[in-house]
Amino acid sequence: MSWTRKILRVNLTEGTCKDEPLNMEWADKYLGQRGLATKYLVEEIDPKCDPLGPDNKIIYATGPLTGTTASTGGRYSVVTKGALTGAIACSNSGGFFGAEMKFAGYDMIIVEGVSKKPVYLTMIDGNCELHDASDLWGKSVWEVDPAIKAKHQDPMMRVAAIGISGEQGVLYACVVNDLHRAAGRSGVGAVMGSKNLKAIGIRGTGGVNVDDPKKFMAVTAEKKAILAENAVTGQALPAYGTQVLMNVINESGALPTRNFRDVQFEGAHAISAEAMAEPSGIDGKPNLLTNAACFGCTIGCGRISKINEEHYTVANKPEYWHASGGLEYEAAWALGAATGVSDMDALTYANFICNEQGIDPISFGATVGAAMELYEDGVITSKDTGGLEMKFGSPEALTTAVELTGKAEGFGKELGMGSARLTAKYGKPELSMTVKGQEFPAYDPRGVQGMGLTYATSNRGACHLRSYTVASEIMGIPEKTDPHVTEGKAGLVKAFQDATGAVDSSGLCVFTTFAWTLDDFAPQIDAACEGNWTTDKLAEVGERIWNMERQFNLSAGFTAADDNLPQRLLKDAAKTGPAEGLTSGLDKMLPEYYEIRGWTKEGVPTNETVSRLAL
Amino acid sequence: MLKALVIDPGKCTGCKQCELACSLEQEGVFNVSKSRIRVFDFHEEARFIPYTCTQCDEAWCQQACPVNAITTTDDGVKVVHDNLCVGCKVCTIACPFGTVNYNASTGKVIKCNMCGGDPACAKICPTDAIVYADVEQAGHSRMEDWAKKTDSGAQATA
Question: CB B31 to CB A291 under 8 A?
Fold first, then answer.
């Protein structure tokens, strides 16, 4: 139990919705969510297909613990071939949508084909239907969410939708659920838009059963206590959110600034968690109103913020005077440090628009940073930008850019291609801070060496959430390693990647891993699910998932040459801070990583590895 | 001592652990749509409000019930007896707070019964937004908080 054992298959070309039993043999090998959905995807699509073409599929998948009382049990993932990267994409989101899917009786939704006209899907318990969405097309997520609830007269419905950006093919468009939680990365929203699928509304009144309720309640209570007592999950995240990192990473000399020209940002404090809680200079009220939890989460790291009503971004727009999802660390970094902007209200406004129109603030902010460098270097001028002065540090440039990109208008169309395509178009591909076409998040690999290997080898393109070695290198979790050395990082990255693969397949949140190890996950999964779920089995599932994703990417045409970093990080040393003088030592880590992975020198899993993992 | 659910919305993060625990206790499955307690998310005002039956002393639901299916326990809790309830839903109309609801799958009404004196919601709440406490002292901590904010209170050391 705990899986509902049911899948919904939606064929948009045919306009059909059909139930299917979940493949339980695969569930035992890939657990759920990221792993299981990826297994379905790699079995069903041609890895070489056009991500935005009819042959790609998009899967919305929960894990076995989604919808249960296990702390953070509200996660779901969107799995597809990424629009931004052409690689395997798996974007994970919280909120309440995932749990509702379970309550409606489904483990996952597989969407295939392309609808001739815009549609949205509803799942009301077992009753699944496609509806005309022509009146919702061209609307934002914030308009579509209440509109669908109103149409179906059900305020308790949960909605995941794309904004205008996803309709218009912004390559890092997200799927946004519950207004401000997002499956953010790799352009999963653009894939949804390419299928003419605007939204999914779910309402479930059924229950989620676990194998042994008594044991499950006892073990989940014990694990919640560990989260509550931990300094990060019990104190720092509820009080400061992920933004607790801003000053810490800046002081570590690993805060990429102005398109990675610098590794420390003079404006870091102004955009930090501490500043969010301080009374503002304009109206004397803090940016942060409260913290908020996703479904079942006892950490509650979410930020609920409000923009100063007198700030230039909203002074004439009372529709933005309400509270909504505020700045998380990655967003604050990308919209702030990466662009050199230190105006908290401008960042919060940009973040609101990212949620409203469904764009990934990491890729967006990093692309703005790259565009600013092109502009300052004279490669592009205001003629190219439609009059926009793309200067580092300009809040006006940032907030105009986000409005344009959210609607894919004017220069926003070019920004919507992502930094790799934008810089290549103007003959400066070296200015794109990407791996496999996806922009880096908020940790400079010169100051945190493990993150260089993490980015280079991430199956979904540059990403911090595939192996968050920052935990070890900066925070000392589970044990402290030196962020400036490359020794031992290959093994560390592999261990984090494998463990994260299992965590992302469980239905729980990776933030629990500041306090939990796989030893804490295993008994919770075991009490809920059939099968003998041990730590060793979870680690093997994680490693199997990693190799399966790798094989997909190799079949899609990626090679070892794509496990690389931009020259800037390999050649230009960090100018200031504790990492001053350092470049990324990727070349020292990568061969060892391939070896530890059981891959050839060309980065291909050996036959032995493939058979050991029963792939 | 009469105990009640004392709710402090300011501490609520909207995680719905209370709804999960309630549904497991009452229905045997995790099913928030069958929970007797609900958390409302006033998103644009950044407020989360847990809401459930307050166990009125003179309960409208009880008085409206034509078959006397709702009785009062020694602890003042209003309990629905499924063997008597005929599913007429008059109590759901009578309750001004909407905290008695019809369960279509059983044909009976459901409401908070305090889990027989050990409410699952209070036990699981991670932030103490819901506690099970002496009803006569329910306002104590809030009074203390406000007292602290007064000039004279600010000088007090206790």
Answer: no
Residues of B contacting chain A (CB within 8 angstroms): 13-17, 20-21, 23-24, 27-34, 43-48, 124, 126-127
What CATH number is attached to the domain comprising A402? 1.10.569.10
Q: Output helix, strand, coil percentages for chain B, rounded to the nearest 5.
A: 35, 20, 45
Place of tokens 């050990």: B118
Last residue of a domain, one of A406, A432, A458: A432
Report if residue B62 sits inside a domain. Answer: yes
A343 falls within a domain: yes
* B156 part of a folded domain: no
Q: What is the pLDDT of residue B145?
A: 86
B155 falls within a domain? no
* A119 and A179 part of one domain: yes
Token pair for A82 = 């990424």
| Per-residue pLDDT at A403 exceeds 70 | yes
pLDDT band with cut points at 50, 70 and 90 for residue B157: low
Cα(B101)–Cα(B108) distance, integer angstroms: 9
Taking a contact as any Cβ pair under 8 Å apart, which residues of chain A between 119 and 178 contact chain B? 156
Residue A573's φ and ψ, nearest 5 degrees, are -70, 150
Any residues with CB less than 8 A from the CB of A106 and at least 6 apart, and which?
A4, A6, A7, A8, A62, A123
Res. A584: pLDDT tops 90: yes
Chain A residues in contact with B30 by the CB 8 A cut-off are 67-69, 207-210
The answer to whether residues A232 and A379 belong to one domain is: yes
- Render pLDDT for A496-537 as a digit per residue (tens, 0 to 9): 999 999 999 999 999 999 999 999 999 999 999 999 999 999
A119: nearest Cα among A107, A129, A109, A104: A129
Do A278 and A153 lie in one domain? The reply is no
Quote the domain boundaries for residue B122.
1-52+116-149
Same domain, A425 and A535: no
pLDDT (average), residues A446-461 = 98
For residue A212, tell me if it sits in a domain.
Answer: no
- Answer yes or no: is pLDDT of B158 > 70: no
- Are B24 and A69 in contact (CB < 8 Å)? yes
Is-contact A59 A80, C-beta < 8 A?
yes
- The answer to whether residues B103 and B89 belong to one domain is yes
CA-based angle A548:A552:A554, to the nearest 5?
A: 115
pLDDT band at A381 (very low <50, low <70, confident <90, very high): very high
Q: What is the overall mean pLDDT for chain A?
A: 97
Q: Which residue of A lies nearest to B41 if distances are taken between CA atoms?
A: A292
The CATH number of residue A531's host domain is 1.10.599.10
Give the mean model confidence (pLDDT) for residues A568-583: 98
Question: CA-nearest residue of chain A to B126?
Answer: A298
If you average pLDDT over residues A404-418, what whole number do you get? 98
Domain count of the fold of chain B: 2
A271 to chain B nearest CA, in Å?
Answer: 21
Nearest-neighbour CA in chain B from A156: distance (Å):
9
CA separation for the pair A15, A107 (Å, rounded)? 21
CATH of the domain at B69: 3.30.70.20
The predicted pLDDT at position A1 comes to: 77
Q: Is the pLDDT of residue A283 over 80?
A: no
How near does any CA of chain A get to the CA of B44, in Å? 5
Residues of B in contact with A99 (CB under 8 A): 32
Instruction: Examine the domain organization and report whether A406 and A451 are in the same domain.
Output: no
pLDDT beyond 60 at A259: yes
Together in a domain, B141 and B64: no
| Cβ neighbours of B127 in A, within 8 Å | 300
B21 part of a folded domain: yes
Judged by CB atoms within 8 Å, which residues 356-415 of A form the interface with B? none
More confident residue, B139 or A355: A355
| Average pLDDT of the segment spanning A273-299 | 92
Is the pLDDT at B154 greater than 80, yes or no? no
CB A456 within 8 A of CB A565: yes
A555-565 burial, b at 16+ Cβ within 10 Å, e below that, comes to: ebebebebbbb
Domain holding A507, by residue range, is 445-612
Distance from CA of A153 to the nearest CA of B (A): 16
